[in-house]
Amino acid sequence: MNRTGEAVRVAVVGEATTHSEPLESDLDAGAVDVVASTETAAAAADCDVDAVVVIDAPPGHDGLAELEAARQADPARPVFVATESTDPARVEALLSAGATDVTVLDSPGSPAQLVARVSARTTTPTGDGHRVAHRWSDVASSLAHDAKNPLNVVVGRLELMEVDPVHADAISRSVDRIGSLLEELSTLGSASRRVTETERVDVGDVAETVWRTLDAGDATLETDDDVTVEADPERLQTLLERLFENALEHGGEDVTVTVTATDSGFAVSDDGPGISADDRDHVFEQGYATTDAGEGYGLFVAATIADAHGWTLEVGESEAGGARLSVITGR
Known about the structure:
This protein is an alpha/beta fold. The strands form three sheets. Strands 2-1-3-4-5 form a five-stranded parallel β-sheet. The two termini are 38 Å apart. The longest helix is centred in the middle third of the chain and has 32 residues, at 129-160. It is built from eleven helices and twelve strands.
């Protein structure tokens, strides 16, 4: 991160056009120092800079693609976009793709605004939600991993101690719960990262794979033949796992779970007792559980993974009167 008081070192990605041609000279002054100029974000990946400035001049130069490439190369480095497009939808797309900030090059004062934004956001990293989320996920995963070592010491010492069985059982349950919460923290760390690479995935095939790993007993899974989405396959597995576990936990030992295609994505439904109207507004909240058996993180993790893809998770009632969790992918 740039140290306050020093010029911010940036790499400019993209070819100069009518509006952006004077941009480098305007940037390379005062608080900002342009130390590299490249045609692609990939070429800027190894540059020793505090931030990247991507020129967006569609259709000739697709800054959106370069933005995504820059984020993938170094998720923690701020990426600013200087766009020649005045279309609000284009600005929204750039921000949604993870741009730290977007400046529209439609006035003489735009470069000065960009310089101010680069300087302020780079010296104050909390202003970049993408960086904060990425760092939080790293911290969460690391914390969950590191905390398991002292927890294992507690379990080992407990086995060597003479403790009343009643107290030993209570301590063991508490230790197990802490372990489960740490696992959830680790999962959330990876689940919350914004999805940058996807592939066309057959949801039915993934569902069958996940189902075989669960202790489903007499429960049944039924899937449509044609349910496909653009997704991170590994995180899609975790999402389906959490939705299935919710159905198995609440639907009974012989519940039937169905995965079907919808006009806007896909849905996981069951023929269990369903989710009450009072609970529907809260089921995606962190730690919200309707039974003592769960930790209240299953649907929260599923919703987090959906959000990382840019999807929405909605709850409703299935045709059989059970729960219906709809994944709105926007397809």
